[in-house]
Amino acid sequence: MTPGLLFFVVGPSGAGKDTLLDGARAALAPGGRFVFARRAITRAADAGGEAHDAVDPQTFERMARGGAFLIDWAAHGLRYGLPVSLLDDLAEGRHVVANGSRAVIAALAERLPDVVVIEITAPPEILAARIAARGRESGDVVLARLARTTPPPPASVTVVRVDNDRSPQEGIARLIAALQAQTARLRLVRLPLAAGARALAVLPRDSTVVAAADYLGPGRIDLAGRGRSVRAEVMVAEPGVVPADAVGLTAEVFDRLALPESTPVVLTRTPTPASRAALRRKIRGDTLDEAAYAQVVGDIVEGRYPDSEVAGFLVAADRSLDDAEVLALARVRARFANALRFDEPIVADKHSMGGIPGSRITMILVPIVAAHGLAIPKTSSRAITSAAGTADAMETLARVDLDADDVRRVVAAARGCIAWNGRLGHSALDDVMNAITRPLGLDSNRWSVASILSKKLAAGATHVVIDLPYGPRARIESAAEATALARLFETVGAGLGLAVEAVPTDGSAPVGRGVGPALEARDVLRVLEGDAGDMLSDLREKALRFAGRILAWDPAIGSVEAGRRRAEALLASGAAREALERIVVAQGARREPIGPGRLTRTVLAERGGVVADIDGFAIAGIARVAGAPLDKGAGIDLVARLGDTVAAGDPLFVIHANAASDLDAAAALAARSCGYTLAEEVPVVR
Q1: Is 605 helix (H, G, I), strand (E, B) or coil?
Q2: Residue 515's beta-bridge partner residues?
Q3: Which of 540, 553, 442, 542 is nearest to 493 (CA)?
Q4: Whole-model pTM?
Q5: 11 is in an annotated binding site
Q6: Is 17 a known ligand-binding residue?
Q7: What CA–CA distances, in Å, run from 519 to 182, 285, 524, 545, 582?
Q8: 3-state DSSP call for residue 333?
Q9: How many degrees, rounded to 5, is the angle at CA 305 between CA 303 and CA 309?
């Protein structure tokens, strides 16, 4: 006979375990498959709460020494015990449901091979109200109960969470559903099939455990057992391929689950019904609150939706997110991040909406702020469609693939870092979303506000400055749009507890001279070493502008003007250059920095005129064909800048590459469209 399962029901005081257990007992006990355990407690029989066997402390101690209990424990000044006779019920195939303590789960799991923990949960404010309503505890005792912590259950134990945050009837229904779902168990079978990255589970059409055809469709299923789980798409096989009481897994999925064949596992459908209802409301154009976004985002992060449904949700979000929804999304996104924390009153950060070639001000700003003494753990992305990201440029000087411990170590040693964010897990949601949004061309600025600020919160920032470049080819098209977006950044930041200052900036032309990792790093070093010259005055000015705004948050500085003066002094004295060197060394300096590509080709003006426009997209495109950003030395070195007068045959820019074929391809692209527009007269700026 297949033994029954022990369901160990736990949860904090006030979660409503007794109410839910009473309801589940009334519904399930008459059928005979479930037995609801009666506990021995050193509490008077008429003390209220659950029905129990009242035992005085001396008798309880004698029973415990005599082996009367399957498990016993002490809590809240009382002792509790489950009778050892429950083992007989389990051996006879009956499922036992027992109210227990999280503190003894590990000990119970050592005695029984298959314990299922049912954790009843509710928000803290609901817990406090329920405890107070019982009238048995004072205010201090209520707070002590809420503050109580217990060790997590062992990894080998299956944990099922049941939310009891609504009516008792709904909580009872959720508990019953959880109990019944766990008893519908399938045996694992390893199929002699491989499906690569695609996770597949095969149900027999003649299954004696589940209605296999009901699981076909675009959704996925979870298979869980002994504290492990895996998610997969469903296929249905004709009788005989998979045993009627089993589920077959392809080789990769079976190995990922890492449980022996014939292990019983529970199948559950994903996503949750509440999540799907919220997702469909958003697709219809409704607004969602934070709780609804938590449901949807949680199921998306856990892979419970097919890409087609996630895409529908994202398209709807791209069309309509009000301010409250942006804040709700930011809060929810932050929950799914691996957060860094620093014991600092001010932890500075900076972000740019991007799209402007050469605007590598982060590598100047961070050393200035670090030289002043403020903590600035800057984490940045690599290039996606541009010729370089901050992480790509910094990687020409030092290691950037830092983990959380590395970031804390570097900031402790150098007061700042310039790291790649890929190893920090700041947004599990973005990893899922980007794979869908990029092919669809979705690029919602309002969605980005939630994404950016949630990642800043996860990175441990307290004060954030945002660069919002606008222009005809920038991500933000107009000054009015940038101003509105700045207001949204600052409003949402305040809602998250962040000090945020968002600044619209001119994004009509490239900033600096180099476009590509090594060329941009070269410009940074020239500014830090006081060798900026006129060609890099725009890069220097923009870096000082934003550094001054960050330093103004220091109470000892107090104003943007004083912050600007302090930034200039740190730059002029060489302190900022020394700070960058400390950061480079702490992160792991390259033995030899990567320099610009050794092969070059100069692109010349075909006629004379005034440079009226420089198409940053075209310039970045040529740099990418030359090999950037993967080839760190490849890129473009701008010679003629906006407003310059050039004669026919004068250089416009120089292409750098390390492979002749890349150089030829980039030169051919530049010959078709070099990105420069020349006017006969100096354009009038209105």
Answers
A1: coil
A2: 636
A3: 553
A4: 0.68
A5: yes
A6: yes
A7: 60, 46, 9, 22, 21
A8: helix
A9: 140
Give the amino acid at 334. A
**6-10 and 246-249 strand pairing:** unpaired
Q: Is 46 annotated as a binding residue?
A: no
Q: List phi, psi (to 5°) of 60.
A: -60, -45
Extended strands (E) in 238-304: 246-249, 264-270
Measured in residues, the chain has a length of 686
Contact criterion met (CB below 8 Å) for 393 and 524:
yes
Any idea which residue has 């947004």 for tokens? 427
Please indicate whether residue 144 or residue 65 has the higher confidence score (pLDDT). Answer: 65
Q: Which of 633, 630, 614, 625 is nearest to 676 (CA)?
A: 614
Q: Are 183 and 226 in contact (CB under 8 A)?
A: no
> One-letter amino acid identity for 562?
A
- Is 207 annotated to bind a ligand? Reply is no
Mean pLDDT across 190-209: 89
Q: What band does 218 get if pLDDT is binned at 50, 70 and 90?
A: low
16 is an annotated ligand-binding site residue: yes
**In the prediction, which pLDDT does 238 show?**
93
Give me the mean pLDDT over the 389-401 stretch: 94
Within 13 Å and on the Cβ side, how many CA atoms surround 442? Answer: 21
Q: Which two tokens stand for residue 627?
A: 């090999």
**How many angstroms separate the CA atoms of 420 and 372, rounded?**
23
Distance CA 506, CA 513 (A): 16
Residue 170's region, left for phi above 0, alpha for psi from -120 to 50, else beta, is alpha
How far apart, in Å, are the Cα atoms of 462 and each of 347, 421, 545?
A: 5, 18, 20
H helices then E strands: how many in the chain? 24, 27
Residue with tokens 């074929």: 661
Contact 430, 552 (CB under 8 A): no
Question: How far apart are the C-alpha atoms of 519 and 635, rounded to whole Å?
Answer: 7
- At 632, is the secondary structure helix, strand, or coil? coil
Q: Do the beta carbons of residue 500 and residue 464 sit within 8 Å? A: yes
The confidence score (pLDDT) of residue 681 equals 59
Q: What is the mean pLDDT of residues 370-387?
A: 89
Residue 50 CB coordination number (10 Å): 15
User: Could you give the strand order of the β-sheet that contains 95-99, starting from the edge strand earlier in sequence?
Assistant: 34-36, 95-99, 6-10, 115-121, 158-163
* Cα(670)–Cα(614) distance, integer angstroms: 13
416 phi, psi to nearest 5 deg: -160, 165
Q: pLDDT of 351-368, one tens digit each? A: 998 778 878 899 999 999
DSSP state of 162: E
304-315 pLDDT, tens per residue?
A: 777 777 888 888
Split at pLDDT 50, 70, 90, the class of 686 is very low
13 annotated among ligand-binding-site residues: yes
Strand partners, 469: 505
- Given a contact cutoff of 8 angstroms between Cβ atoms, the answer to whether 124 and 232 are in contact is no
Dig out the tokens for 236 from the structure. 């249905």
d(CA 374, CA 342): 12
User: CA nearest 108: which of 159, 33, 56?
Assistant: 159
Cα–Cα nearest to 369, from 515, 494, 553, 513: 553
pLDDT tens for residues 438-496? 655 556 788 889 889 988 988 889 999 999 999 888 888 899 999 999 999 999 999 99
